[in-house]
Structure formats: C-alpha cells, structure tokens
From TrEMBL:
One of its GO terms (cellular component) is cytoplasm. It comes from the Eukaryota. This is Pre-rRNA-processing protein RIX1 N-terminal domain-containing protein. Residues 59-80 have a biased composition (Basic and acidic residues). It comes from Phaseolus angularis. Residues 54-81 are annotated as: Disordered.
C-alpha cells in the first residue's frame, strides 16, 4: 500500500473482524480516508463523459482534491433517472466476481473471500457515501449482504450484520421492508440452535458465538425498530412454536427493552401486545418458561413502567394497569391485570369529559394525535389513583 497509491478497499475490509481491536480500528480508519478516492468504477456515480477518467482510480498527485471532484461529478439527471440495465449488470458482475486478486494471498484468503469482500465494500459505500455511488447500489447489494450476515462466515458475517443495522433506517428499510419478519425469524433460528435443547450447543465455536451475539445485540434491534408490528407477530408465534426454555424468549424480552429505549413513540401504540407477550412468559401454567424468563420479564416490566407513564404497577407488584395511549378520549379504557394469575381482571371506562377533544383544535396544516391517557399511578392502598388526559398536535 506504499508508493503513493491508495489502499485497496477490499483488502481493508478483510481486517474489519480481526481479533486485534487496533487492527480493526486502523483498517476502518484507512478505509474511510481512502474510500472517496478508490470507489470501484462499476459502482461509481459519474457523468457518462467522466466514467472513463481512470485518474480517479490511480495514484494521481491531485488526489487531495478528488473527494470534491467526485461530489461535483455527480449528474443530477443520471441520479434522478437511475442507472441502465447494462450498468446494473456491471454492478452485479462486480459483486459476484470470484476473480482472485493479489491481495488474497496477503490474508490467506480464497476466491470466496474476494466476492464477500466486494459485498462488504459495496454495502459500506452505499451507507456512508451514497452520493458517490450509483443510486441502485443499495437495492442490488442488500440481499447479498443479508445472506452474508446469516451465513455465519467467521471473517465477514459480523461486519455484514453491523452494516445492515447501521443503514437499516436510512438505506435498507425501503428495499426489504416486506422481508424483515423473515430475517427476524432467521435470527431467532440461529438463537434456537444455541439453546439448551440443541444437540450441537457444545460444538459452537467462539467465532460463531461472536457472530450470533452481533446478530442478536446489533442487527435484531434495528430490524425490530424498523418493523415493530412484524417483530411483535414473530415473537408471539415463537411462544407456541419453540421450546419453553428456549433462549428465543429471553432474547425477545431484551429486544423489547431496546425498542422501548430506541423507539418509544413508535412502540407506544402496541402496549397491549407488549404487555400480553410479557405476561405469557411468566404464566404460572407454564412453569418451565416462567422459571427461564421470570427475571428478564420483570426487568422488561420495570422498563415499561419507567418509559411509559400510562403503564403503572402497585407497590406489591400484584396489579398492573395499562391505559389507552392513542384513542378517542371519549372511548378510552384502562385495563387492569393480576400479575400473579397473569390475567386481565377488569376494564375501566376512562372516557374524558364531554368536549375534551375540542380543547386543542388542530391547525389546517397539522394532524391531531390524541393521547387518550398520558399518566396512571396506584395510590399507596393499591387503588388506581391518577388519570391524566392530554392531546398533542403533530405536524
């Protein structure tokens, strides 16, 4: 990488999962420093008249101005129209290339490493330098990136999962929104393989454990926040389709906590489903699941009460109350649950006084979001005490 030449990006990503933290950080730092100068030609978003200007990919002495030149070289017309089928074919050919290059011997890799490195480079560029690459790159690379993340590849899967998580909201979500529940299910399948009922649990390598940790702690929360309804549907189905002592249930609970902290407003309208799921994990009729999940379930309940003031428990933790969050104030309810039998014991009518919804009229340009019940609490004697109504306007 000497002689004034820019480093090869596919070589750098080979070190992104190195055992040494210093090596990982150095490889990523160099990648960012060099990325705008060494974008592979099939991926580069240039005007047609400049697409053959190979000075962008050589050791030109003017490379210190290259980042600005490339930004200026983007054609708004080309970006708006997208890329031709021929250009997309060239992108796919580059992504699927098995060509063995000189750098492979430096890392003791194979032709498979060449292709997986291409996928990582393309994914990273699509997230971090979207204006410098062709508009269709994210759509073309997202599925190979998903497959790589789930392939349990010791060199690249964790990196692929991290890239998917980092760019989920900004880059990938619109490309794979209908596939998110399936991907969540695939992650749970990997979690299930490491469960106590798995015969191969003793054979799991440190590398595989690290990959699964990245899938669960990094990728899964980002997927869940991108499609909350899909995530809730998957975890509800897991209650009945997996073993009672499966680690899947505890992972589901911990992921719910991550959603509460990362996307509380989006989860608020599904509080009933969240509460019902947590209660199922501590159902006394399923002693195995209750024993496995009880501590995590209580932690999740505590976080639920902390984040959402319309959820309350009494001092003895025997009663739980959940108020309607988004609903017509004249039709609001409070559901009260018995924590010991995990059943709903009453539904209280929490309708507001007549005329309340008109106290804060919506503007012509905004929409009215009615928060039916914004706060609940139990009195010291265990009775439900305070109910607060409010409305807020969202433009």
């Amino acid at each position: 990488m000497g002689g004034g030449l820019c480093p090869c990006p596919v070589l750098l990503v080979a070190f992104w999962q190195d055992e040494s933290e210093h090596v990982r950080m150095a490889a990523r730092s160099i990648f960012h420093c060099a990325a705008s100068h060494v974008i592979p030609l099939p991926l580069c978003n240039l005007k047609p008249t400049e697409s053959n200007d190979m000075s962008f990919h050589t050791g030109s002495r003017d490379r210190h101005n290259l980042g600005n030149k490339r930004e200026e070289s983007i054609s708004p017309k080309v970006e708006k129209q997208g890329v031709s089928q021929d250009e997309e074919s060239k992108i796919l050919a580059w992504l699927e290339s098995f060509e063995v290059q000189d750098w492979i011997s430096c890392v003791g890799g194979t032709s498979q490493d060449a292709m997986t490195s291409h996928i990582i480079v393309a994914g990273a560029l699509a997230i971090w330098y979207p204006s410098l690459v062709k508009p269709s790159l994210s759509r073309l690379v997202v599925h190979p990136l998903m497959k790589l993340a789930m392939a349990m590849n010791e060199k690249y899967s964790s990196t692929a999962a991290e890239l998917l998580a980092e760019g989920m909201e900004s880059t990938w979500k619109e490309c794979i929104v209908s596939e998110i529940p399936r991907l969540i299910g695939d992650i749970f399948f990997q979690v299930e393989l490491s469960g106590p009922s798995s015969k191969s649990v003793k054979e799991i390598s440190d590398a595989s454990f690290s990959i699964k940790k990245t899938l669960v702690e990094v990728l899964l929360p980002s997927l869940a926040m991108a499609d909350i309804t899909g995530f809730l549907a998957v975890i509800e189905s897991q209650i009945w389709s997996t073993a009672s002592d499966s680690p899947v249930h505890m992972v589901s609970l911990l992921t719910l906590i991550r959603i509460m902290r990362g996307s509380p407003k989006n989860l608020a309208q599904y509080l009933d489903k969240v509460v019902n799921f947590i209660l199922q994990t501590i159902d006394p009729s399923n002693s195995v699941m209750r024993k496995a999940c009880f501590q995590s379930s209580m932690t999740t309940f505590k976080e639920l009460v902390r984040v959402y003031p319309m959820v309350a428990v009494n001092d003895s933790w025997t009663k739980l109350a959940v108020g309607d969050v988004i609903r017509e104030v004249n039709n609001a309810n409070i559901r009260v649950y018995d924590m010991q039998s995990v059943t709903m014991i009453k539904v209280l009518d929490a309708s507001g006084p007549p005329g309340l919804p008109t106290l804060l009229p919506a503007s012509l340009s905004g929409t009215m979001l009615t928060t039916a019940i914004s706060a609940l609490s139990f009195s010291p004697d265990g009775e439900l005490g305070i109910t607060d109504y409010s409305e807020e306007q969202c433009s």
